[in-house]
Amino acid sequence: MKTITHTPVWLTVLLGIVLLLRIPSFFEPFAYGDETIYLTLGEGIRQGATLYQKVYDNKPPLLYLLAAVAGNVFWFKAALAFWNVATIILFWKLASALFPNKERFQKASTVIFALLTTLPLLEGNIVNAEILMIGPIIAAFVILFTKKLDFKNIFLSGTLFGLATLFKVPAAFDLPVIVVYWLITAGLKKDDLKITLRRSLYLSLGFLAPIGLTLVWFFLAGALGDYVRAAFLQNIGYLSSWRPGDVAKPFIERNLPLLIRALVVAVGAVILFLKRKVLTPKFIFFTLWLLFGLFAVALSERPYPHYLIQVAPSVSFLLAILVTEKTVEQSLTIIPLFLAILVPVYYKFWVSSTSAYYLRFLRFAVGQVSKEGYLASFGQRVPTHYKLADFVTSSSRPNEKIFVWGPDSSAVYALSRRLPPTKYVADYHINEFSTKKAEVAKLTQNPPKFIIILPDAKGFTELTPILRKSYLLISEIDGAEIWRLSGSFK
């Protein structure tokens, strides 16, 4: 296929618009829960703590490594902006490779993709794994559709899929897309199957290579078990976790929705195989990519908008066919696009207001809203987190520990660059993966300098004895209690 060697003017203009649209994100506070968790773990890495063993979250390590490099929310957002620009360029290269003589298609698909991954509609302004992992995935497909399918190129593509998975495990569901595509388009003759099997083996080896290296690294660090449990095994329990009442049900009944979704993917692949002679390979590829992506999006049945970014590439291609092509497949795109709409509607995905996001920033930029009012617009607790962090940083040394209990506790850790004496940095970590009794035992053994109880904190009566025995209530900030380790226990 044709190799693109220069960037057209329209793409340069589009990338400029994307950076312009991202300017408000550079002024966002430490407010979004996931971001503050990532930055807290990043700070743990900077302080030499071993991931998963000494500081915990349940995603693979690349996101936390990026947070460690960034150091704060501004540079985290800046890294996201330039990563997104690079991803858009990769997407355009894929569009150009698949439709080399159709600039209208290239423009339409790339503009749609740029908007879907940039605007707050799908939380494109927030640093989340989905927007980071689609870059390596698209790069892998660029190689597979533009290079000779020899061992080196297929292995490299597999490695990119592996790197994407090290941002978040659902990225792995994009890897079988190309394998099923090969099976459908190459045919089922013995020689064709051998070729597909060999390519799939190369792809799998490449996929496992970066993941295997992380296993070796954590083994040498003495944290292999912690890594495997946190980044991979505990995510199994994440499936259908939006239905906690189903936990006690039999396996088949509990996982029936998941099995039905898998059946939809399988049926869709079979239909594409049966109709392969009347469909173009590109349409087959886009539809497969969407089917597997929607399966990954709905794994946990949680309605977070940023999950949908995983299907932004395939949706962009299909929408471009719908608005630019004049073929039978223009009409056929309605079927996969209907599924793309059905999933977020059925699972009631939340929607972020794009207009409200930019209007809020404009009011702040022109001075209509004060800094504290701007912070509060991201959540009433946000100004309190900043005040608490200011207190902590002025009253403790960088290596001293604090413990924060309550919603969004990770924001205080991230803002103050202080770590807890236990590995958990969010209240739901303790609720889901430990016990309050166990955490109090750790706090007793390794008491932090400060224990902070946030205003909306709930249900940690086990802390009361240690507070009464070893701590003094020294201050309250917006209803948050600050307890200091008493002199005899320093």
UniProtKB/TrEMBL annotation:
Keywords per UniProt: Cell membrane, Glycosyltransferase, Membrane, Transferase, Transmembrane, Transmembrane helix
Domain of life according to the entry: Bacteria
GO molecular function, one term: pentosyltransferase activity
Cell compartment(s), UniProt: Cell membrane
Gene Ontology CC: plasma membrane
Topology relative to the membrane: Multi-pass membrane protein
Segments passing through the bilayer: 62-92, 112-145, 165-188, 200-220, 256-274, 283-300, 331-350
Any one GO BP annotation for this protein: lipopolysaccharide biosynthetic process
PANTHER family noted in UniProt: MANNOSYLTRANSFERASE YKCB-RELATED, MEMBRANE PROTEIN
Protein name: Glycosyltransferase RgtA/B/C/D-like domain-containing protein
Organism, scientific name: Candidatus Curtissbacteria bacterium GW2011_GWC1_44_33
Lineage, uppermost ranks: Bacteria, Candidatus Curtissiibacteriota
